Amino acid sequence: MNNFNNFVNSQPIPFEGMLLKDFLEQEGYTKIKLKLTKTNHFEMKARINNNLGRFILDTGASNTLVDENMHDYFGLQVEETDVKVTGAGAMNMDSKISKKNDLRIGKWRHPKTVIVLFNLSHVNSGLQSLNVPAVNGIIGTDILKKAKAIIDYEKKYLYLKL
């Protein structure tokens, strides 16, 4: 154990003396401001097919979701699917998908994003009951993994690799 501690303590710290934001920007990340809502969710803005929306950042959601009623607004080409959605207070609910969507979060962009369309009325009802405005969707782990995301919970920033 002592050898391990000596090894760890002898390794250079890549951003020693630097702020996290400076190190990540140096490494090619862009930062996006997050807003902490009264429900303790992080909210952010993103563009889908050049249309601005409000989204919850959800590290527990495996896929990025858009409310099914927003498909025209976001210009989504909808396809039927047998995939059932579980989570966000729902179990085995029907969904649809839309492929090849241009997703932009700050300066970060993914031009071939697959989006799951799903009825988010139960999510938005819960938010609105606490006087939090409804959201258009949820940014999930699929995007966070693609973008090599890092969340600074204290300063309320999301960093995405460009």
Q: What structural class results from the helix and strand content? A: alpha+beta
- Assembly state (oligomeric): single chain
Percent strand equals 35-45%
Helix content: 10-25%
Strand order of the largest sheet: 3-4-9-5-8-7
Ranges with pLDDT <50 over ≥5 residues? none
Radius of gyration: 18 Å
Write the element-wise H/E pattern from the N-terminal end onward. HHEEEEEEEEHEHEE
Counting DSSP H or I runs of 4 or more residues, the number of helices is 4
What's the overall geometry? globular
Instruction: Note the gap between the termini.
Output: 39 Å
Give average pLDDT, whole number: 87
- Give me the count of strands: 11
Q: How many strands, which pairing sense, and closed or not: the largest β-sheet?
A: 6 strands, mixed, barrel
Label this structure with key terms.
single chain; alpha+beta; 6-stranded mixed beta barrel; 3-stranded antiparallel β-sheet; 4 helices; 11 strands; 19% helix
Could you characterize the architecture of this molecule?
It is built from four helices and eleven strands. The protein is of the alpha+beta class. The strands form two sheets. The chain has a six-stranded mixed β-barrel. The chain has a three-stranded antiparallel β-sheet with strand order 1-11-10, with helices on one face.
